[in-house]
Amino acid sequence: VGDLDEAGAKQTADEIVATIGAGRALGVRMDVTREDSVSAAFDEAVLAYGGLDLLVSNAGVAHSAPVDRMRLADWERSFAVNATGHFLVAREAMRILIAQRLGGALVFVATKNVMSPGKDFAAYSAAKAAEAQLAKVLALEGAPHGIRSNIVNPDAVFQDSKLWSEDVRRERAAAQGIAVDQLEEFYRKRNLLGARILPEDVAEAVCFLASDRSAKTTGCTLTVDGGVKDAFPR
Q: Which residue numbers are catalytic?
């Protein structure tokens, strides 16, 4: 479990160990925008477990602003985390997986915005689209090595999410022309099933694409959004 929030990563790892057993998880600090931090985290994981089987790449930050009022620093920060960060962790994973000659799986957590970008959400939507294209290229490059690469596109996962900061909630509510306290209900009602999307729902999709149950699937985009018709893969 790698995260910029080292304490949070270790806490998550401790919860996994408490549930499944000793040695089953490791929490490390990882800044996905820095090559040295990424390589150090992978080194620690390989030393602990002897190798790598799969990568779940789910880093993300959000910033909301119209393009004409967006600061260059906010655009660059979005691409540093939401695009370059995924490149750095994927590159490190590919180097290990190729050297092992055992195959493997990459799962990228992107967003509904890849297919259906949001108003005043250009920095996030564009950077995440770059992540999705990277994942598809890795499906091409990984296939000869038995390495699969797939994408999960969630939407509006509010529970336990640092992505939905108070600033982002306020900005997204303004973009939709609604009150902040109406935001979660707005997103729920706009999907076909009228469903609230939970972290567990995304985790189920990730586990499927990471496991041998999807052994014949690569280059795939799996939506977990309750059915947002504008975001149907096509």
A: 124
